[in-house]
Amino acid sequence: MIRTVVSLFLYAFVLLGANFAVPASADLAAIQAMREGSMKKLLFHKEPKPVSSEKFYDSEGSEVSLHDFRPKIVVLNFWATWCAPCRKEMPTLNALRKRLAGDKFEVLAVATGRSSPSDAAEFLLENDIDSLELYLDPKLKFLRGMGVLGLPTTIVIDSGGNELARLVGDADWNSESAIEIFSALIADQ
């Protein structure tokens, strides 16, 4: 009897955990229908995908990983100071973070490769990017681990720590469509 109760409890926990991490497919279809403008490039996966466990660094040089941000919805952006489309979209990522960041949502902008910490910090300062924290991937290990092939690339990670969607190229992350999409994802947590 006890074994049956424990088994049922564990089964229910697994089911609830799965629903906690990923919106139901009907909800996901509704969220995908919200894509307009540059958000049409945001491609949702049929099934969430695991993310890399590779580490990256904060501005102090401490290692961090995506696991550190669970159970938030994370918008993970890979950029570089030399990348013109990256520079163009950075203010919209900054605005998105200002509007939605909190207990359930975060925006991470990871400067990659040749973007030295001082160059990346200077770019953020000169362009009034005051909401985004500086993260770095100098040896591109995290970028490769996430399967990123070009910049900018932005990955949406669900609250369970799985890749939910990906957008290659620049986008307006502060558009009404983007705000609607991420507000819906936050509400579904």
Account of the 3D structure:
The protein is an alpha+beta fold and 189 residues long. It is 38% helix and 23% strand. It has six helices and eight strands. It has an eight-stranded mixed sheet. The longest helix is centred in the first third of the chain and has 20 residues, at 2-21.
Q: Could you give the order of the helices and strands?
A: HHEEEEHEHEHEEH
Radius of gyration: 17 Å
Strand arrangement, major sheet: 1-8-7-4-5-6-2-3
How much helical structure, as a percent, in the residues?
25-40%
Q: Which parts are unreliable, with pLDDT below 50 for 5 consecutive residues or more? A: 1-21
Concise structural overview:
With 189 residues, the chain is α+β, with helices and mostly antiparallel strands. Helix content is 38%, strand content 23%.
Map the helices and strands.
Layout: H1 2-21, H2 25-32, E1 43-50, E2 56-58, E3 63-64, E4 73-79, H3 84-100, E5 105-112, H4 117-126, E6 134-137, H5 141-145, E7 153-157, E8 162-168, H6 176-187
Parallel strand pairs: 4-5, 5-6
Antiparallel strand pairs: 1-8, 2-3, 2-6, 4-7, 7-8
